[in-house]
Amino acid sequence: MGKVIFTKSDKFTSEYCCSIVKIGEVKAIEGKDKIGYTIVNGETIVVRKDQVKEGDVLFYASNETQLDKGFLGANNLFEASSYELNANANELKPIVEKNKELKVEFENVDKIIRKLSTCSAFMDAYEGEIIAASGDEDKEEELTTKFNNCKKTIMKYAGGNLTLESSVSDFVATANSQCEEKKAQYESLKNLIDANANTIRNSVGFFNKTGRVRAIRLGGIQSMGYLFSIDELARYNPNVKDVNVDNLVGEDFDTIEGELFIKAYVPFVPQRGNKGDGKSKDRKRNKKIEEFNRMVKGEFFFHYSTDPLPKCINRVKPNDVVTITSKLHGTSIVIGKLHVKTPIKLPFHKYIWNKFVDLTRLFKSYRFTDYIVEYGNVTSSRTVIKNQYINNQVKEGFYGVDIWTEYGNLIYPFIDEGMTIYGEIVGYITNSDKMIQSGYDYGCENGENKLMIYRITTTNDDGTKHEWNVIEVKEWTERLISEHPEIKDRIHVIDLLYHGTLANFYPEISIESHWHENVLEAMRNDKKRLNMEKNDPICKNKVPFEGIVLRIDNDELAEAFKLKTQKFLSKERESIDAGKVDIEMADTY
Hints:
The protein is an alpha+beta fold. The chain has helices at 69-74, 89-132, 137-158, 168-201, 230-236, 277-287, 309-312, 348-360, 403-411, 470-483, 502-505, 515-524, 527-530, 566-577, 583-588, and strands at 6-7, 18-22, 27-29, 32-40, 43-48, 57-61, 65-67, 216-218, 221-223, 226-228, 252-253, 255-256, 259-260, 262-264, 307-308, 321-327, 331-343, 371-380, 419-427, 449-459, 465-467, 491-492, 496-501, 547-552, 561-564. The chain is 34% helix and 21% strand.
């Protein structure tokens, strides 16, 4: 068996990766001869008809990813402003430098033309202006000063045999004649600059220096992601030529021969944190604190990755019973009542012995157990356990507060032993006018927030995990509110939009031909029942509804699929364009 080239890193996500795909039908775009569009992983992408054909096996980079700069440079895919990152930079440099010189000359010629034209027109009208200003000494003086300055300007830029005593007609004629010569030079320079710019444009790509894959609209079609061939990939890593990619269609990867090739794009944000002596003192103090890891292996699990529905629609069968719920735009939280290690005080001689074992790494099997296992609160954000260590001080989050620990402490008393709940916190940061996600208030007043619980697991007596279905999660949440009305205002019951089969939800769609493609399109445009492409019905602010989450009932593999609206994706793209990082992006990536 040969070496595996394409692999998944520990931080792999299906949403932000590369896929090996076989191109389906390339459909025509009205009024466009050279381009068409096709569907890749459930998303539309515009292609050149002379470069991409049905049946081609290509690589597809998901939207809002960041490609390796070495790959982009090897294929001259960086845009003109970042041409120096491309492999052909040395070839283009003389042309780029020449165009800079030509642009300076062009701007100078343009300046001369404008000055001569302005002065010529003023001198031509000077006599009439003086007559009109007769009797107004200030105006006459102003016109005379301007008239003399125009003479000097024309003499400076037009030359000739002009003197201050030359006639007005001589000044005007000389200025107009010089303007015509400069206009010819202007056009010549413009043509040279355009020709060089065209050469540069045809020798570079369209990626900016970040390597971000960004959705664009071409021919009236939204183009999502980026397609490239194995020949292009071989310019980056020649070893890929040894791989039969036809046998890998459908495979995802983010790493090539151990090197990260693609990842989620995140705008650069300066590192947060205090500066100065305070931070240094905190570091020194924390070094003195021994952090006791209280986690028990196999007890806690982060929420699984929610894959894009367009990419996974083929996993859903017409007669699968599914639940469709609203997707809220907030920040993830996990709260569990799980087995944790609690330290105990050892006799002094045993404590010293453990210190010796820890320092020398000798006699590990003879180390004294310094903890007991009992149920305790485990709370995390999407990727960070907030109380992993026994001495853990509250760590500030994205907005300088730890909203996750706040909810962990609130909900923990109401959950059973072995239970883990997964949810989304929405609204505002507590006691603040800052929103968790800009614009998405979800009916909360300033300083208020809510928790929507969307998933629950429990540990059985034999140690296996039981996954609750969505209906059970909804009923548990409603019971929680009923039994504990004091937290009613802090809880949002999951919005169940549909429960049943998609065949029954869309009976008009034939299951005999292209059912997956057609049912996906129907869901994308279902405004009435799924709120797609509408404003969020819960929010007071007018913001796009984020989308839906689909789960298959009693699925052997616990998974969920998300379908975001195009309006939400456009808003998200605008935020990324502006360099804004939201709370989830900061926590996850």
